[in-house]
């Protein structure tokens, strides 16, 4: 498959790029700092661009089969109004529509959308203080995706770690199961890469934890 990864230069995006290449996919790695990606592979195309710029995203979308969105913000941005997730998602959805690309896999996080109701009372106040602005925008991001008409899957990982890929994580599909926990970025990436060809979770928002 020809896969566009938006936010590919670090974190989950970089690990997803690595694992998608290992799985044999053609990967277009899109990020403002794409040139700094250290990976080399004949199936890897590094594209420098801004996820908020329509012309950049439109150009990156040409000829792809699947889009994986893995955007993040810096710690300092958490204490200012956050609009990156929703604004970039609007640009992406329009570009996907223009190119006829239907399959979208997106990372948000536990606490976004209707999973917010599953945050324990003990965790709710610190969560709101630190992550409230970002997750309000992630919730809007999720709503835009669900209303897009695309074949979407939303992954909501718990607290991210730098641990190894284990394959032993839990995929919590039912709201009654949702809870916080930890999970490595490598395991999140494994889940994302699996969804490139697996349609089991189309139109589902899932929580991922160990």
Features:
single chain; 210 residues; alpha/beta; Rossmann fold; eight-stranded mixed beta sheet; NAD(P)-bd_dom_sf; biliverdin reductase [NAD(P)H] activity; Putative NADH-flavin reductase; riboflavin reductase (NADPH) activity; NAD(P)-bd_dom
* Structural shape: globular
Estimate the helix proportion, in percent.
Answer: 25-40%
E-strand count = 10
Give the CATH class.
Alpha Beta
Averaged pLDDT: 95
Quickly count the helices: 5
Strand arrangement across the biggest beta sheet: 3-2-1-4-5-6-10-8
Low-confidence stretches: none
Distance between the termini: 28 Å
User: How large is the radius of gyration?
Assistant: 16 Å
Number of domains: 1
CATH architecture: 3-Layer(aba) Sandwich
Major sheet description: 8 strands, mixed
Supply the helix-strand structural class: alpha/beta
Strand residue content:
15-25%
| Order of H and E elements | EHEEHEHEHEEEEHE
CATH fold description: Rossmann fold
Provide a descriptive summary of the structure in words.
By secondary structure, the chain is of the alpha/beta class. It has one domain (2-209): NAD(P)-binding Rossmann-like Domain (Rossmann fold, 3-Layer(aba) Sandwich). The chain is 34% helix and 22% strand. It contains 5 helices and 10 strands; from the N terminus they run βαββαβαβαββββαβ. Strand 1, helix 1 and strand 2 (26-31) form a beta-alpha-beta unit.
